[in-house]
Amino acid sequence: MPHTFSTVASQIHQQLGAVLAAPVLTDKRDALAPLRASLEIQAQVTALVATAVEDARGAGRTWQDIGDVLGISRQAAFQRFGKPIDPRTGETMNTTPLAEAALLAENALNSLAGGRWDEVTNQFDEQMRAGLTGDALAAAWAQIIGTAGAYERHGATESARTADLTVTNTPLSFEAADFVARIAFRDDHTIAGLYILPAEQSSPSLHE
Fold this sequence. Notes:
By secondary structure, this protein is of the alpha+beta class. It is built from 8 helices and 5 strands, in the order H-H-H-H-H-H-H-H-E-E-E-E-E. Strands 1, 2, 3, 4 and 5 form a 5-stranded antiparallel beta sheet that branches. Strand 3 and strand 4 (178-185) form a beta hairpin. It starts with a helix and ends in a 10-residue tail after the last strand.
């Protein structure tokens, strides 16, 4: 049964009271207890925000209204709190990204940077394998090196769920330009899409 806003708020109030009372109620204070309690409160606050968003939607407020309050775009608000319905099944879609997606993306990028093309293509799904060979992948990477200089490093990877895929975006730094690696993973960890995008543009330079 979904929690109401008042129920979640009451739980947070009780938890805060327990944290504040702990030093008085015990002689031997666990120095880590406040940290553990703070993490529990943080999770409850997250649930409180989600409940408040659900209430706002139920009251007819738009994703733009909600995004404005949260300081994010309406799309970001929807992606964070929305419950899209799959038109194929009529059921609520899974919006949770693949847990290992960031690590999978970074491993693939390390293989690219190291010239280990087969390690990347071996992760391709059937459609990707039919459209992009190891030689073609090497040629595409060489083209980027030719225009942007040597690869230097990658930044932190962000992940988001899009229907049946988890899409990762990883900033890439080269000598003379910045790019973003966008890799789409299926739940079985195979790669369904691979792009290297100029940071200031949106057109792909690697095949999907």
